[in-house]
């Protein structure tokens, strides 16, 4: 029986009541759906995507985008492969209206396979103005909304449920009439959003949508998009999924309805809500790149897309140059992407922890070995790596930032950078020794150690020490397997000519070192080429025990030279100077 004094379960310290007035808030009442099926479903394909960066994203900026920046962002979305793009709220202002017109009037702006979308409230004058903005477009969608949650009906609009249903139907009729008046030459789609859907009674939202469908009359050639916004995220993502599954089960004429999602991120779970709701039957997702949008933002389209990608599913969007995407969005919106933003932040492929670095290093080594066996590159084989769910190369990153060094780092990270950046594949015990050197510097500096600084530390510790001993010249003679060496050395500032002999160059030089007072016993030796071609260099690593008895020290020396034998002798000198 262990003698450890354990914390008893009933003796664990309990969280104490907070001083916050939590009782002022009501828990969300979930929909009762005991026969839900979505938890057993899997995502197997990408949804239809709509980017609302130019509308929902733009309206949430401190300084809304200029027309030039909106155009740059629109062009980026097209290049990435988005086929449905909400470009504005043309009835809201002349600036918005003019931007819509500028895209339509530029014949090269909107590809034939891209559908632009514009938003409007359920007001006849605004709907008519919205339709006018689309004249000349090849393919477009008018997106109308009105609020259906009880709180908004009572407090914001002072509407009864019947008035809310009638407004949705009447607004849809105004949309149909405006399309007929202004847009006879345009392929038109219609999207309706029961705004605040996630806080509404789901049966009431269904009634409203059924009334809208009675007016629009969807069929096989006349789709309707019913968009279900979590306008303010107020519940756990499984609750939203239940609402969506219930809606999909009960909406009539389901085969001609595109059920769309519009999650916001107020509770920080918009991505999970969107994924669960797709499992629940939704066909389409609206969001913004990097989660821009009102308050805490819309769902992040980048995270959703790359979540699919890392499960082996084509997101149907090109994220292969994620840094360019990020920089363009940052320029256009004036808002930086967070360092920890999934997939796209500066630090998301970076490990500082020593244990993480060691695992990543071993994982990358394993991948390289598998690639070599298959005659492929590491980027052509199945990706499985510790702590890296995505190969950074696939989104235009490299491995330079994967491992970075600070006081939390260990030998794995240090050795990885020394190998990848400086071509030094150090033996394991040397990795451990040098990591202690780096740790000392990192503790003193209290900040990240760069790759360049690592090289400076390594040079200072192993390569640039020339006291008390430095080698000036070495000459070998091999006589029947016995090596004789004549050396010119500088020892404590005095030039010496010393000879030695052994069964190889290293043992012969050990004999020389003994003659000048260093008792050296070689414990381990490793070497490798650093570069090839005319300026080829080699590295030699020698672990030595120097001295005798209790005064003996075990340490490493390193030598770098175009000639591998000379590199080995320099490694012995390095070890002696460190003793």
TrEMBL record:
One Gene Ontology cellular component annotation held by this UniProt entry: cytoplasm
Region annotated Disordered, chain positions: 1-21
Catalytic activity, EC: 2.3.3.13
Region called Regulatory domain, residue ranges: 465-579
Any one Pfam family match given in the protein's UniProt record, by short name: IPMS_D2
Keyword ATP-binding: no
Residue positions binding Mg(2+): 56, 262, 264, 298
SUPFAM superfamilies the record matches: 2-isopropylmalate synthase LeuA, allosteric (dimerisation) domain, Aldolase, post-HMGL domain-like
Record's keyword terms, sorted: Amino-acid biosynthesis, Branched-chain amino acid biosynthesis, Cytoplasm, Leucine biosynthesis, Magnesium, Metal-binding, Transferase
General function of this protein: Catalyzes the condensation of the acetyl group of acetyl-CoA with 3-methyl-2-oxobutanoate (2-ketoisovalerate) to form 3-carboxy-3-hydroxy-4-methylpentanoate (2-isopropylmalate).
Sequence similarity: Belongs to the alpha-IPM synthase/homocitrate synthase family. LeuA type 2 subfamily.
Subunit structure, interactors included: Homodimer.
Entry protein name: 2-isopropylmalate synthase
Organism of this sequence: Propionimicrobium lymphophilum ACS-093-V-SCH5
């Amino acid at each position: 029986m262990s003698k450890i004094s354990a914390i008893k379960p009933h003796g664990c310290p309990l969280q104490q009541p907070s001083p916050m007035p939590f009782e002022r808030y009501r828990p969300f009442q979930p929909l009762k759906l005991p026969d839900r099926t979505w938890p057993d479903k899997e995502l197997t394909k990408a949804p239809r995507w709509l980017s609302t960066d130019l509308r929902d994203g733009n309206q949430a900026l401190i300084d809304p985008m200029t027309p030039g920046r909106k155009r740059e962002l629109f062009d980026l979305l097209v290049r990435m492969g988005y086929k449905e793009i909400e470009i504005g709220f043309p009835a809201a202002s002349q600036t918005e209206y003019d931007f819509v017109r500028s895209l339509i009037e530029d014949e090269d702006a909107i590809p034939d396979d891209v559908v632009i979308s514009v938003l409007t409230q359920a007001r006849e004058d605004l709907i008519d103005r919205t339709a006018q903005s689309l004249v000349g477009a090849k393919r477009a969608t008018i997106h109308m909304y009105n609020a259906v949650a009880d709180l908004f009906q009572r407090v914001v609009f002072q509407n009864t449920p019947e008035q809310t249903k009638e407004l949705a139907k009447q607004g849809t009729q105004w949309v149909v009439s405006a399309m007929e008046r202004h847009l006879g030459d345009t392929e038109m789609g219609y999207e309706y959003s029961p705004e605040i859907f996630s806080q509404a009674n789901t049966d009431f939202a269904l009634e409203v949508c059924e009334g809208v469908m009675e007016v629009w009359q969807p069929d096989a050639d006349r789709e309707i998009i019913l968009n279900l916004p979590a306008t303010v995220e107020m519940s756990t993502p499984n609750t939203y999924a239940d609402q969506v599954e219930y809606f999909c089960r009960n909406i009539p004429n389901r085969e001609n309805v595109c059920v769309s999602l519009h999650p916001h991120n107020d509770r920080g779970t918009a991505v999970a809500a969107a994924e669960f709701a797709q499992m629940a039957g939704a066909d389409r997702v609206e969001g913004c790149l990097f989660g821009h949008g009102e308050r805490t933002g819309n769902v992040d389209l980048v995270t959703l897309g790359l979540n699919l990608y890392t499960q082996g599913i084509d997101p149907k969007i090109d994220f292969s140059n994620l840094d360019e995407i990020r920089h363009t969005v940052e320029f256009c919106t004036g808002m930086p992407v967070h360092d920890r933003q999934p997939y796209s932040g500066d630090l998301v492929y970076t490990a500082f922890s020593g244990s993480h670095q060691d695992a990543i290093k071993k994982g990358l080594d394993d991948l390289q070995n598998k690639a070599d066996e298959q005659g492929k590159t590491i980027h052509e084989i199945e990706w499985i790596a510790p702590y890296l769910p995505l190969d950074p190369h696939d989104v235009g990153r490299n491995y330079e930032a994967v491992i970075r060094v600070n006081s939390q780092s260990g030998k794995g990270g240090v050795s990885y950078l020394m190998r990848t950046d400086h071509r030094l594949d150090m033996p394991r015990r040397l990795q451990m020794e040098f990591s202690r050197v780096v740790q000392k510097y990192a503790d003193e500096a209290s900040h990240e150690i760069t790759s360049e600084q690592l090289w400076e530390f390594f040079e200072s510790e192993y390569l640039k020490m020339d006291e008390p001993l430095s080698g000036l010249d070495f000459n070998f003679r091999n006589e029947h397997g016995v090596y004789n060496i004549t050396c010119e050395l500088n020892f404590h500032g005095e030039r010496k000519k010393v000879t030695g002999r052994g069964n190889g160059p290293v043992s012969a030089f050990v004999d020389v070192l003994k003659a000048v007072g260093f008792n050296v016993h070689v414990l381990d030796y490793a070497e490798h080429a650093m570069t090839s071609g005319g300026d080829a260099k080699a590295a030699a690593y020698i672990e030595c025990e120097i001295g005798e008895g209790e005064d003996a020290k075990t340490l490493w020396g390193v030598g770098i030279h175009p000639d591998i034998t000379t590199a080995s002798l320099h490694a012995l000198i390095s070890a002696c100077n460190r003793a």
